[in-house]
Specification:
The structure is a single chain. The protein has six helices and three strands. Helix 1 runs antiparallel to helix 5 and helix 3 crosses helix 4. Strands 1-3-2 form a three-stranded antiparallel β-sheet. It is mainly alpha-helical and about 150 residues long.
Length: about 150
């Protein structure tokens, strides 16, 4: 909720700043690459890009190699926004960890990294099980006889 409040002050909704950070750090990207980088889905990314474009923070350009592909790039106007987003993230970080000692902050980061690793492993295992189930559907164990 706090992130949403702080981001609204700079004209963004939660998640939009992540798209902008990728564009600022990596430069213009294909929309499909943004989907992959942020673990989003195509429909959500399309809506996000449309909103950012409407706000004047990004522009879509056709790819020189493939006219079906859109390249998303940050606008000059978004560069001012970058400093505001960095300030918001700094404020969020201070709100979360401002009362922790340096050791406590390090310990929290370690624990969160372990949680992240566990979730990544669990997701990968779930994907593998799902793929295996698709390749080998369960065989019915009940015998069905016409009556």
């Amino acid at each position: 909720m706090l992130a949403g409040q702080l981001l609204r002050r700079v004209g963004l909704h939660p998640g939009q700043e992540l798209v902008m950070m990728q564009l600022w750090d990596l430069g213009p990207q294909r929309q499909t690459d943004l989907v992959r980088l942020l673990g989003s889905d195509a429909a959500t990314m399309t809506r996000t890009i449309k909103r950012l474009e409407h706000a004047g923070f990004v522009r879509r350009l056709p790819c020189a190699d493939d006219k079906r592909v859109s390249i998303i790039e940050p606008t000059t106007a978004s560069l001012v926004l970058r400093h505001e987003v960095e300030r918001v993230w700094s404020e969020l970080e201070h709100s979360v960890s401002g009362n922790l000692t340096t050791d406590e902050q390090s310990e929290a980061i370690d624990v969160l990294a372990q949680i992240e690793d566990s979730l990544i492993r669990a997701t990968a295992q779930r994907v593998q099980r799902s793929a295996a189930a698709d390749l080998h559907p369960p065989v019915s164990t009940t015998s069905e006889r016409p009556q």
